[in-house]
Amino acid sequence: MKKITIIGAGIGGLTTAIALNQKGFEVEIFESAAEFKKAGSGINLATNAMQVYKRLGIYNEIIKNSNVTNSMNARTKSLKFLTSINLKPFEKEFEVKTVAIHRATLHKILVQNIGDTKIYLNKKIKSLKQSSGKVDIFFEDGTTHTAEIVIGSDGIHSAVRKSIFNKTKLRDAKQICWRGISNAKINEKHKGELNELWSKGKRFGFVHISMNQIYWFALINRKKSINKDINLQELFSDYHPTINTIIDETPKEQILCNEIWDLKPIDKWYHKNICLVGDSAHATTPNMGQGAVQAIESALALSICIKDESSIEKAFNKYQKIRKEKANHVTETSWRIGKIAQLDNIIIIVLRNFMMKVLPTKITENQNRKLYKLNF
Ligand SMILES: Cc1cc2nc3c(=O)[nH]c(=O)nc-3n(C[C@H](O)[C@H](O)[C@H](O)COP(=O)(O)OP(=O)(O)OC[C@H]3O[C@@H](n4cnc5c(N)ncnc54)[C@H](O)[C@@H]3O)c2cc1C
């Protein structure tokens, strides 16, 4: 059996390693970071990700170290409901819960479950070259490595993707996002809720990742007048006082700030014996909370195809057939939701809020059911 080389030890790369390792493959990972940092943010793992982790046998460990999300709510800035999705029926239907978890905790669980997979840290790849069934990997430290099969899970700016496809395009959503972990004590009723508070050109989301910790994110439209050092308390001073309490109880030095980009859906996810998984293949904006979840789906689907198919190219082709439509649908839908959520024309906002209130829940439920269902 051939050895499989993974580039990037993020959620996508590690989940792929776990899945391949469990299927008996020898796996190695090259990661650019010198150490795994305790990133100050959380992540919501929707039902589709949790089904994958159940199949990989790490569901209970994740449940033990996270907080269960029972509902997803869009609200006004004063916390009034616009729409609400009850996750309990999905929990029953798919036999898994939705959770929110600290990213570092998830990362640690994944690393603990990669079996005998070797991780080489501080190995940033510069480029790859395919020749006669092999792949030469060139690292920034000047060293090289020859691999038989390469899986690029090196994120949205993927060097692996750039080595095999030269015409892919990143799209700028023109939004800035701050993320943090707060120790605030807020009304108990919010414990199982993922809330997003929408207003004019900005929104604020929060969800508990444990009994005492809240993961929050804040997005605004990027304008020349706004810089990343802006005072968030001031920016959200017109919001419900809960939001200011959450921001106030966050260690400021741990707040992350990013611009929001995605990858315009690409036609092909593989070339010969190199294949992409996660953000390198299908990076999306965070508006549906599905970026990592899609990476997790892709990881398991890819491992099944590699195990089942008679050649690596057939496996990559089948994997792409299984996954591409859904992942691209998420990218495009999330892009549109981002525009709707960040509207800054007050008349259109009033119309949007009205539409959200009257939209039959059956429609949203059916859309979510489709999203949560695995097709492999
Ligand atoms: C603000 C925000 C909020 C989000 N919230 C959610 C959410 O609630 N739910 C959800 O499902 N998703 C969410 N996402 C998306 C999610 O973070 C990504 O989709 C997910 O992390 C992708 O995982 P990945 O492993 O493919 O890539 P990454 O997490 O980017 O990992 C790539 C890895 O490769 C390494 N690497 C990069 N370049 C190289 C190189 N040249 N050589 C070697 N190694 C390299 C990196 O160091 C990293 O470890 C959010 C994203 C953002 C920006």
Q: How is this fold's topology laid out?
A:
Elements: E1 4-7, H1 11-22, E2 27-30, E3 42-45, H2 47-55, H3 59-64, E4 67-69, E5 71-76, E6 81-86, H4 88-94, E7 98-102, H5 103-112, E8 118-120, E9 125-131, E10 134-139, E11 144-147, E12 149-152, H6 159-164, E13 170-182, E14 193-198, E15 202-208, E16 214-221, H7 232-235, H8 241-248, E17 256-263, E18 270-271, E19 274-276, H9 279-282, H10 291-308, H11 312-341, H12 346-358, H13 361-372
Parallel strand pairs: 1-2, 1-12, 2-8, 5-14, 12-19
Antiparallel strand pairs: 3-7, 4-7, 5-6, 9-10, 10-11, 13-16, 13-17, 14-15, 15-16, 18-19
Helix pairs in contact: 1-5, 1-10, 2-10, 10-11
The structure holds flavin-adenine dinucleotide.
Residues 7-13, 30-33, 43-44, 124-125, 153-155, 159, 177, 179, 217, 258, 278-279, 286, 289-293, 295 line the site of flavin-adenine dinucleotide.
